[in-house]
Amino acid sequence: MRKLILAFGGSMVLAAPLASADVLGVGANVSYWDSELSGDVVNKGSAVDIENDLNLSSDSNANFTAYFEHPVPVLPNVRVNYASISQNGSGQIGLEAFDGILPGTDVDSELDIDQLDLTLYYEVLDNWVNLDLGLTARKLDGELIVRETFVGGRVSETTVDAVIPMGYLAARFDLPFTGVSVGGEGNLISYSGDSLHDFNVYGQYEISLLQLRAGYRQMSIDYEDDDDKMDVELSGPFASVGLTF
C-alpha cells in the first residue's frame, strides 16, 4: 500500500525553540466526541455516500491524550494522542453499484477509523498566551465494511493504511486569576492530491490538578490508498476531563 512518510530529522529545526517549560510537566485527558459524518468512500472506482446511502451513525468516538514537557530548550516536548472512531448503520446502495453490490440493495455497514499521533513540539510562547509549534506523525487505519443483508450476500471491504506527517499548532489564552482559558489546536497536511486536517476550539477550566474542557472539533480525511479512497468529514462537540502535574 502507498505510504506517505516524512523523516523528522532536520525538519524540527524549522520550529526553533523560543521558550521552554520552567519545570517538568505531565498531563493526560480523555474525551468523548459527538460527531456527525459525511463524505464518500471509493473502492476500485465505485463510490458510495456514507451518510445518505449507508446511514452511518455514531457508535463511539473515544480520544486519549498524554503529554510530557521539560525545561531543556534543545529537545522537543512530546505529545501522544489516540482516537478511535466507530460508526455503523443500515441503508441502501444508491443509483450506482458499489464494489459489485447492485443499486438499491439493502446493506449493513461499519466504519472504523483508528489514529495514533506522535507529536514533537516546542513552546514558542509560555505566559498568558501559550503557543506551541511542531510536527506530528499520524498512523491512520481506516476500514469500511459493507454487507448485503441477506444470507450469503456480498461483503465489500475498503481500507486505508498510512503513516502521515502533519504540521502541529496549538494556542491558548489564559484569563488572569480565573482558571479559565480559551484555545485551539490542529494538525494539517496537503500533499500530492491527499489532504488531512484535524482542528478543535475549546473553553477550559482548571482547578488544582483537574482540567475540564469543552469545544468543537472538525476532522477531514481525503486519502487514497491504491484503489481505495476515503473522503470523509467528521464534526461536532466534544468534552474532556484531564489531570495535569
UniProtKB/TrEMBL annotation:
Residues 1-21 form the signal peptide. Keywords: Signal. It comes from the Bacteria. This is TIGR04219 family outer membrane beta-barrel protein.
